[in-house]
Design goal:
Structural class: alpha/beta
Subcellular location: Cytoplasm
Order of helices and strands: EHEHHEEHHEEHHHEH
EC number: 2.7.1.24
Number of domains: 2
CATH superfamily of the largest domain: P-loop containing nucleotide triphosphate hydrolases
Protein name: Dephospho-CoA kinase
GO molecular function, one term: ATP binding
Shape: globular
Organism: Hansschlegelia plantiphila
Length: 194
């Protein structure tokens, strides 16, 4: 089974690209959905212990947690030390199920793939990307997004140009879904032949 690590900076179309891989028959692990489930389950008491007052009715209040950790490197590292091992455990279970189901391709959606050295854990790396103006437009449409938050998030991420240079394939999401779909198909075909 070929294991692809899918990444991309904020607003670059990673979720759309993951969906396109799924439509081509790949098994896809959604990191955001996993974290969402963890925040309403096993991670909640651990996060509450580390950041008192961030859990309400057994579910992590993402907005409150964000105000505590964004811009605070030590707090963010503490949160990641709680969440990342749980996400990796979920990924291992997903890959085991995908192998058992006979999947030819499995995609791990890993937001901070290069930043956390996870590129070493996959066979191929795919980067979702779009132009800087399109990225900014998409991100600023998100509820509660501010220029300051956007800058903080970008500061934590490997620059898009570096991600593109290190990728085995780049999916350009800035020119419509059909073009991106063709690039996903081409990447799968190329990987299958290598």
């Amino acid at each position: 089974m070929l294991v692809i690590g899918l990444t991309g900076s904020i607003g670059m179309g990673k979720s759309t690209t993951a969906r396109l891989f799924a439509e081509e028959g790949a098994a896809v692990h959604d990191a955001d959905a996993t974290v969402h489930a963890l925040y309403g389950g096993p991670a909640a008491p651990l996060i509450e212990a580390a950041f008192p007052g961030t859990v309400r009715d057994g579910v992590v209040d993402r907005k409150e947690l964000g105000t505590r950790v964004l811009g605070d490197a030590a707090a963010l590292a503490k949160l990641e030390s709680i969440v990342h091992p749980l996400v990796r455990e979920a990924e291992r279970a997903f890959l085991s199920r995908a192998r058992d189901d006979g999947a030819a391709v499995a995609v791990l959606d890993i937001p901070l793939l290069f930043e956390t050295g996870r590129d070493r854990d996959v066979d191929k790396v795919v980067v979702a990307s779009a132009g800087a103006e399109e990225q900014r437009r998409r991100v600023m449409e998100r509820p509660g997004m501010t220029d300051e938050i956007f800058k903080r998030v970008l500061a934590r991420q490997t620059p898009d140009a570096e991600k593109r240079a290190r990728a085995d394939a780049v999916i350009d999401t800035g020119h419509g879904i059909e073009r991106a779909r063709a690039q996903v198909r081409a990447a799968i075909a190329d990987f299958a032949g290598s």
